[in-house]
Amino acid sequence: MTIINSKPVWVPPTSKNRLVSELSIIDDRSVFESRAEIRRDKEYDISGVGAIERTDILDDSFYMPSTLSWQIYTAIAKMLKLNYRNKDISALSYYAAINQGILSKGRHLDDSSHQKTEMGGAIIGPSGLGKTKAVNSAISLFPSSIIHEAEHTEFGKAFLQIPCIKVNINARSSKGLLRDILREISQKSGVKYNDVTERTSETTLIEMVANACLIFAIGVIVLDEAQAFVTGNTKSSSADSPNAKFLQRLFNSWSVPILLIGTPETDVFLSCNAHTYRRYKKNVDIFFDNYSEESEYWRELVKTIIQNYAFCKAVAISEDHFHQIYVYTAGNLSVLQIFCKELIQQVEDNNVTIMSNQLLTNVYEAKKTTINELTRLHLKPITKESLKQARSPNKRQKKAVPENKAPDNQSEAEKRWKNLGQDVHDLFTRKV
Questions:
Q1: CA-to-CA distance for 142 and 164, rounded, in angstroms?
Q2: Has residue 392 got a pLDDT over 70?
Q3: What is the pTM of this model?
Q4: DSSP 3-state assignment of 72?
């Protein structure tokens, strides 16, 4: 007897949702890597370029995406899809929910199909790991702003969507951070928050951000350098610290996911309060450490910089050389960058043609003060024992060949962002 399944096939709510489809989310890691990668040494012959220019290229125009890069991208994509899951700009109820949220100051949305999003996440890793660069790279692969034409909206007017807002927490106060967020929203939407001053209250600023999240369908707010929330409080007393309460308040007030990026101090700070920890670990919980000596990504990165930027040719790099570089840099990208910039300079100044242990020692000696302090902070101090010969690593696979980057199709839309953003803002916040 054949049993016929009468159940309809499940169709995800995001399958026909323009707030999601216009994001062009990448599901294939190799495609992501090809679009995220920045390699001027592949595009140009830099062998005749001076050491100073090559170090500048390494600083500004070089990026090899890693597993961390991919996980950050997928984490942001996940938050965007979950946030937009039940938000449909072709439904009149969506705009009613926006108005209701603004009038109620973001406290509640009665319509269950437009309920307030409560999602949080944290990506934790040591300083110098490359978190900020990975976050910036991931966000750059989403449109900065999206214009949905009038025919795709229920209320017959063009709609401006802002997928990501990213702010570094370098303000000295919670109000300073909120003003920085509004400033970033202003840059992407064109809305002028001229009434915001240093005297504007924290409550008012939180409400203004909440309104902007609704009006512009902001997908996710990324707060980088989250360790700035950590104060001198001890673990026992920081459970009720002002910063912990502030983070809880943001989570409760904004109808948008919040993703924290910070050092391990951030994780300790969050763990002091059960509510804060649970909320900011709810949807994304990623912890990375410095790279191991056996990391395939680390070895490929070291090899690429040495051959393409320092020597500008293929040179032999022994296991002893790899080990010596690892000990000097502790598997940390920032320390590696400092080390390699000095290496590039010394190779040119001394007309060095081959890699040697003495060359690496000379580079270390030139930057010893800085490198020793940084490796000590990463709990990997340099000793004679640590410089001993390393074990041979396992066989390694080759990297996938990157594809060409997709063209940028936002140029025409950029011309309309600011005017449209102000119009939409005025439409939803006009005084009756």
A1: 8
A2: no
A3: 0.82
A4: helix
Residue 321's nearest CA partner among 306, 309, 332, 338 is 306
Q: Do 267 and 124 contact (CB within 8 A), yes or no?
A: yes
Distance CA(328)–CA(365), nearest Å, equals: 10
Q: Which numeric CATH code is attached to 67-289?
A: 3.40.50.300
pLDDT in the model for residue 166? 96
The CATH 3.40.50.300 portion of the chain extends over: 67-289
Structure confidence by residue, pLDDT tens digits, 147-175: 999 888 877 788 999 999 999 988 678 99
Answer yes or no: are the C-beta atoms of 264 and 126 closer than 8 Å: yes
**Pairing outcome for strands 146-148 and 120-124:** unpaired
CA separation, residue 241 to residues 31, 234, 246, 272 (Å): 43, 10, 9, 9
Please give the residue that has the higher pLDDT: either 46 or 104.
46
Say what the alpha-carbon torsion angle 212, 167, 27, 75 is, to the nearest 10 degrees: -100
Distance CA 216, CA 250 (A): 18
Decide if 147 contacts 158 (C-beta within 8 A).
Answer: yes
Q: 39: which strand partners? A: 62
Strands 38-39 and 62-63, bridge-based pairing: antiparallel
The secondary structure element, H or E, covering residue 120 is strand 120-124
Contact 14, 82 (CB under 8 A): no
Reading the block at residue 214, the tokens are: 């609704």
Identity of residue 110:
D
The structure tokens 């009434």 sit at 195
CA atoms within 13 A on the CB side of 22: 24
DSSP codes of every residue in 337-406: HHHHHHHHHHHHHTT--S--HHHHHHHHHHTHHHHHHHHHHTT----TTTTSPPPPPPP-PPPPPPPPPP
Beta bridge partners of 168: 224
User: How many residues are there in the chain?
Assistant: 432
CA–CA gap between residue 295 and residue 390 (Å, rounded):
14
Q: For residues 346 and 352, is the Cβ–Cβ distance under 8 A? A: yes
Beta bridge partners of 122: 260, 285
Cα–Cα dist 247/249, whole Å: 5
Task: Give percent of the chain above pLDDT 70.
Answer: 79
Give 262's strand partners: 124
